[in-house]
Amino acid sequence: xxxxxxxxxxxxxxxxxxxxxxRAQVDYVIDGGxxxxxxxxxxxxxYMVEEDEMERGLKLMVDQAxxxxxxxxxxxxxxxxxxxxxxxxxxxxxxxxxxVRHFKTIAESVPGVPMxxxxxxxxxxxxLTADLVDELAHTVDNIVGMKDTSGDITLTSEFIRRxxxxxxxxxxxxxxxxxxxxCHGAVGGVCTAANFMPExxxxxxxxFAAGDL
Length: 213
Fold this sequence. Notes:
alpha/beta, 9 helices, globular
């Protein structure tokens, strides 16, 4: 629950992860009140970072977070086999869960690791349907939630309604719809803007959770 930040990935002139700046960014967003960090989401430019650098970056984030908030790992590879490999790497290096764009085979490759579906039609060209989310939520044990970046609040509310009978958490994926998503029953949001104004974004969630509408 709460605001999870899809953290940016600072890169140096040699296109390697800038350790000092990454550690500073981890501290900045945690000090700003985020409830979790998502490594290598779309905003973290997963498509630009080699696998060995992803592993190094994840280790740095887990180390710097030092248990203060969970660190999740985003997987956006095209190949399902590569996704499974990255999922297993993330699980071995302290990720609290993974966020993925394609699903059942990857979930089964890391049994026991919580997995979030990621619905981002603006990036992949199609949306997850309520029927598909309903089926995955009810049939794959470690698929425990999703991030919905459709921007369609009616669809978000349908994902929430169809999964209320199981332990499945829906996060809003559009910063502008954080409050609306919460009103419909989302447990929080994955908010890019928390990279640079975390106090403002987390305050929306904290006020809602306290009943201050």
